[in-house]
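2.7 Reproducibility. Because tokenized structures are sensitive to small changes in the input, we list the exact sequence used for Reverse transcriptase domain-containing protein, including any N-terminal residues retained from the expression construct. No trimming or masking was applied before prediction.
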Amino acid sequence: MTTPLTGMEENMLKSMDLFTAGCPSFGLKINAAKTVVMRQPPSSMVYNAPQINVKGTQIKNLESFAYLGSSLSCHTRIDDEIAQRISKLSQAFGRLHPSVWKCHGIHLNTKLKKDKAVVLTTLHYGAES
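Resulting structure tokens (single pass, no recycling of outputs):
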């Protein structure tokens, strides 16, 4: 998926037209049914969904979507991203918790280091998993 990083609808239209025109040169075809668009205006501007067409088919507008494991929003807030990372942290911790904390052969210091490694790694890089 290629996402033109433009703000104004006119620029988005121009970018999409150029992208559509260039695709055949590389043997690519755009499937309008699978293509989506999301505009991220500055926080000081009111959001209006752009009307983008590809080969006569209007492209679906999204307010948010997951891309490479990260949550993107048209409102340029990170609330969804933080909630998603906390959820991933909880899942990772939940998977490891029973196997490590109930094992009596592992020292407490080792268990705490493991938890710290899981927590920090998941919070920092959770979007990549």
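DSSP finds three helices and six strands in the chain.
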